[in-house]
Fold this sequence. Notes:
Distance between the termini: 31 Å
Strand order of the largest sheet: 6-7-8-3-9
Helix content: 55-70%
Mean pLDDT: 81
Strand content: 5-15%
Amino acid sequence: xxxxxxxxxxxxxxxxxxxxxxxxxxxxxxxxxxxxxxxxxxxxxxxxxxxxxxxxxxxxxxxxxxxxxxxxxxxxxxxxxxxxxxxxxxxxxxxxxxxxxxxxxxxxxxxxxxxxxxxxxxxxxxxxxxxxxxxxxxxxxxxxxxxxxxxxxxxxxxxxxxxxxxxxxxxxxxxxxxxxxxxxxxxxxxxxxxxxxxxxxxxxxxxxxxxxxxxxxxxxxxxxxxxxxxxxxxxxxxxxxxxxxxxxxxxxxxxxxxxxxxxxxxxxxxxxxxxxxxxxxxxxxxxxxxxxxxxxxxxxxxxxxxxxxxxxxxxxxxxxxxxxxxxxxxxxxxxxxxxxxxxxxxxxxxxxxxxxxxxxxxxxxxxxxxxxxxxxxxxxxxxxxxxxxxxxxxxxxxxxxxxxxxxxxxxxxxxxxxxxxxxxxxxxxxxxxxxxxxxxxxxxxxxxxxxxxxxxxxxxxxxxxxxxxxxxxxxxxxxxxxxxxxxxxxxxxxxxxxxxxxxxxxxxxxxxxxxxxxxxxxxxxxxxxxxxxxxxxxxxxxxxxxxxxxxxxxxxxxxxxxxxxxxxxxxxxxxx
Length: 576
């Protein structure tokens, strides 16, 4: 059964305030930045308000006799008269105007720089937290999600968290500016301020018509992008099969349909933004007309009307951006809550790190009444399973498909924790051993070859350090792949392509064997690790391994029987 995405589970039925609260909780450590950005916005709005009032006063002064400056200033707001003092002069007003313009410019640059810097840091931290989460949680938690969903969250949704954080700060800045401009309007005329408030309420009411549509567009866009990512990933994985079975046309059509749907949704989002702009412009124009009509009836000085008009004109972008960002929060619901859902720790299983040191296996690995049931499955994969793997011997674990062989491996590799029972290593519970120590002493090569896009060297080293070229060469020789590597144009630096698909299945399997053996592990697990080899090559490789790892613990996982000269003893799961 396909795992449901976060959107399908209903995680997204949240209001804008709930989204803000979740983003706030996710971005702890950056909260002071929001208050700093709001403070910068407040100072910028104050500087702009002062500048507008002074500019209007200067216009009137230039239109009148300069000797009558104080007469002109008598109609200015009280706060401006207190600011410039009783002895005001034209140069003083010019200096104040210039200062406010420069201050507003500097504050705007500071806010933009701070937003960019903080946004990048937040996306980096969220991205790192997500990556760590993927590597720390139980393997079953990872398998319960579509790979395309995880890729989408890691690659794109982390930026949305940063966008939302900056958006929250911008909402605070614009709200502060609206309040400051509103106070300035009240200082000019409470009647004009009342008209502006009524216009603002009308503006907000009209934009509520867009909120539900904006939220749905955001959810649909997130879901469609996830489908597009999933199809792209599937195409890259199954390119050969798509061509072999002749389904290129249907894949092209499917991809084109999803791509067109994304385009329609993004266009719809842009249309909503344009609608917000149109409404803002229309409401602002209506308010300005009403202000001009009513100013004569109320006997408001023309200087105050002009200042109010300038303030309303500068107020309009803040109102428009405030409402635009509110709508964007609805659009960002899906990626934000999907990311937060993956970061959530309470609903996930974390494997114990252990605290006891481990160097090598001296006695045995013992499964004692171990039971494990995969999530969502009706019955256990293994039930009260008990057996012993002696140290320094070759042990074969046999069983039919579904008998629990893979479960045993996953439990031994600490990818999962038993539901009940114990796995003992030299009498110590495996969960109590430091996981790093245990995994350094253990290695595996399996039938599901997981090679990476890179060179031969990168695939054998597998991001591990401390191995010499001689060790790499020795591991390749044991795996029977060294001669083939020598024939490659660039040898160990040869690029193998995506998932090393440029080489055959048998060569890929032997490459993974070399990867497993380069560390010369104390415990080597071979899970059907030679099933892609022909009989002669398989016998040669297994003989090399037994000879090279003599005295160490070898575990063969297989469905086939082994000869007595190949293994020291056999565990048959159907017999336990």
